[in-house]
Amino acid sequence: MTDIEMNAALCLSCRQLIDAEEAEPDGLRCPVCGSTVHPRRKNSIEKTWALVITALMLYIPANILPVMSVETFADSSANTILGGVIELFGNKMYFIAAVVFVASFVVPLFKIGSIFYLLITIQARDSLSNSAKTRLFHLIELIGKWSMLDIYVITIMAGLVNMGFLIQIKGGAGATFFAATVIATMLASKSFDTRLIWDIKGEQ
User: Fold this and answer.
1) What is the arithmetic mean of pLDDT over 69-87?
2) Is 70 helix (H, G, I), strand (E, B) or coil?
């Protein structure tokens, strides 16, 4: 039984369950922390759809454009995310290449695909249980921080390896789009209301 069926609402700030019959004229007010409480986040599905589609659109140039350029006195080069992974493999740096590939290519795709899946299954039943979908959402939030690995590496290298006209490392346009992709997916997961999963009747 969901909170709506019990005529109650959950405060997302302090997790207090509130009796919906005690609503004030301006809406539900949490008696513990004073926050305004809504039975479900307003326009959660619409906002999440908009953000995850934006993330997908940003993800394309993030992988096409170079994320980092290295300029030396004699030469200059620029790499995309996958180009950097291939170069790391070519230099036999297999572990680092695998970490960058998973964190910067697989994880963002997994997050975007998983949010798409959750949004679709809210409106259409499928074989996965509601508890499994909730665990999937918590996994999305857990691994989200690792998506910024490329940006951290570029920032550290640009700060440490800067020798004037001899060698310079700069972030490329791809890094900007990649950071925007990560931010969009983070906002999408924040706007998604997991309580909507449990509004679906069926296997729990």
Assistant:
1) 72
2) strand
